[in-house]
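dude i think i finally got it to work??
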Amino acid sequence: MSRLKSVAENCTIAYNENEGLRNASGTITAINSICYFNAGTQISRTAEATYSDVQDGYPGDGNINIHPILGACLQVLPGSLCIDAGNPDPQYNDVLSAAISMGISSSWKSSRPMLMWRN
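look at this
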């Protein structure tokens, strides 16, 4: 039996009471995501993060630790350094620019789901 593999892509995971992104079993990868303002650990257990904004930092290619500047619906607002800071691979490009932003933005490809986690 194979272990579960999950991907949190272009997610904003914020304001949770315990932890941000937690993996109970298997593996989880956060890509082009934001994990900020959670009460406990931002990312815990067996997790990988790349091109993500993680409060207090997290190892991985392209990760940053900068206040994300979020709106009421946890979308990235103008002036945020998360804009156009996602993975530079063209498969992640959005419809308004050549680069994808981290977290939820208003310029996603229509095929990308909008997902927010908040307690």
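The radius of gyration is 13 Å.
im so relieved honestly
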